[in-house]
Amino acid sequence: MALPAATLRTGARMPLLGLGTGPGSVGTWQTSTEPIYEAVKVAIDTGYRHIDNAESYAEEQAVGRALREKVGSVVERKDIFITSKLWNTRHHPDDVLPACQRSLTDLGLDYLDLYLMHFPVAWTRGDVYYPKDENGRAILATPDVHFMDTWKAMEKLVDAGLVKAIGVSNFNISQMEEVLTNGRIKPAVNQVESHPYLVCSKLLKCAADNNVVITAFSPLGRPGEESLHGVSPLKDPKVISIAEKHKKTPAQVCLRWQVQRGVVVVPKSTTPARILENSQIFDFELSTEDMETISGLNKDARIVKFGMCDDHPQWPFNGEF
Ligand code: A2P
């Protein structure tokens, strides 16, 4: 099954559906990486050809084990799209190449299809992913490293052939525009949180105007967690009613709405039945009215806020998305 794909500015095809591998909530690691190892294998067997990773998820070795079992047998390397992300503690230009090499080693790959700057704020260098002071605030890089300096180091990864494309994540509109204006290589992707309660319509317009593909993380709004104060798009009466009309699940409707507006989705699941369910979104179509109804549910409700560094001038969430 060839899944529909977005075309990046590099000409590469990025499947509209990928498996998300991050933790359920920021800073909460799974006690074992076995579920993600199994999930990646199930996803590839189910037909997924895109896996979304990040160094900070601390799962790349497990993903790498699964890839080694499947790539070369079930799927050729060129037919699977692998993303990773540069973490906040690796923004110093000297740390960018080693961080990328580490992800490549852990994933067992010799190139990444896409490497994203995970967040526009630099934290203190080192191997502690969440360096915090006694008040629980993130310890920022001193001196600060502006994201354009980090970006210039990421451009060299493209030159060296270690990554096919580079992009950003959690960048607001003006930050994305700054990289578009000043980067020698323009960002191919901006990966942001998006679901029916956080539709990001202005960002989508700006991205489309500038040939940037948007990827939505947490496209289901992290069901089962209290992050949205117990409100889940999957329990929204309007989403449920559209789902019933199409004989689909609310999760499938949330994912279909995104891909139908050209947004790549990377839902996370370690449950085989849900990995399958989330892939069955290319055999139905939402009407214009359905699309507008879902977009009208927007509440600008954000789960991932990185509040521990909200005093930093580049903290993105007081800007527009
Ligand atoms: P599980 O891993 O137990 O399947 P998001 O990607 O929006 O952050 O959401 C991730 C969460 O959503 C995971 O906890 C996952 O649980 C759950 N999930 C994934 N797919 C579905 C689905 N189709 N229906 C309900 N919950 C889902």
From TrEMBL:
Domain of life assignment: Eukaryota
Active site residues according to the UniProt entry: Y57 (proton donor)
Site positions for Lowers pKa of active site Tyr: K85
Domain NADP-dependent oxidoreductase: start-end pairs: 17-298
Residues that hold substrate according to the record: H118
Gene3D superfamilies: NADP-dependent oxidoreductase domain
InterPro entries: AKR (IPR020471), Aldo/ket_reductase_CS (IPR018170), NAD(P)_OxRdtase_dom_sf (IPR036812), NADP_OxRdtase_dom (IPR023210)
A Pfam family matched in the record: Aldo_ket_red
GO terms, molecular function: aldose reductase (NADPH) activity
PANTHER family assigned: ALDO/KETO REDUCTASE
UniProt protein name: Aldo-keto reductase family 1 member A1-A-like
Protein's organism: Branchiostoma floridae (Florida lancelet)
Lineage: Eukaryota, Metazoa, Chordata, Cephalochordata, Leptocardii
